[in-house]
Amino acid sequence: MIPHHHKITAMKLKKKLPSNRTYEQILNHYQVEKSIADRLKKSNREERQIILGSMYDELFSKVPDHSRLTRRNSEQLTAQANREKLMLIQRFFDKNAVFVEFAPGDCKLIYEVAKQVKFAYGIDISDQRESKVGAPKNFKLVIYDGYNLTDIEDNSIDILFSDQLIEHFHPEDTKLHFQLVHRILKNGGKYIFRTPHRLSGPHDISAYFCDEAECFHLKEWTYTEIKALLKELNYKDFQTRRRGGRVDIRLPYAFFAFLESILEFFPKQKIKKISKSLIPSLYGVAIK
Prior knowledge:
Number of strands: 8
Distance between the termini: 49 Å
Largest sheet: 8 strands, mixed
Strand content: 15-25%
Structural class: alpha/beta
Strand order of the largest sheet: 3-2-1-4-5-8-6-7
Mean pLDDT: 91
Low-confidence stretches: 1-8
Number of helices: 9
């Protein structure tokens, strides 16, 4: 239930409630997450390190009906999500690859990847595994503070993967993340990532009440913005891709850049509706 002081005014819904959560639960989730996100946005780097270490514990304690907790408790939903991610990345590695996943969470996906590569690292801000039993011998979980990574050598990684990660970074920290990735990748190494596309968003809990991301998605991106950042950091190439169901194809960057430039002129609600069909997420491969 929402504390009494939160019930000042009901907020109008912008999308239909999920079948398993009430309006009160959604509003509570939004208010808790927005409060933490506001602290993050106003923080300096040192303060962010402290907040990052405890923000999910705070969120889950105040929002026990959070969908991530629901999924975590369902082996079927976890297995289904991991199968889909494995299909996404399998084409990029072989048995000789050294692989990294950023934010592997329970590590169930990267354990599967480890069976198919030479060595696999997980990099996270905390150990979220239910148990350390059963970890593959060619796997290592590296815990870092979100900034400083000393456990992995420069120019040593073939393939790096993250899913729904960079939207959670403070805008000042996204550049640092891509610099870190560039440093540990081998020449020609690939960083495969997916992140929600800004024009079809917001994609966090604020979507129920707002037209812009206000909660844990501190910044949602476009292909044009990512391309400019990668160019600044001297990545050799940015392969832009589109995935729908089992179809995964590479499309020219110019296709996405053109769509983005046209859509920006539409009214917000039309942009969102069209973008959900054309560019529901941002999926690309940055090459060092």
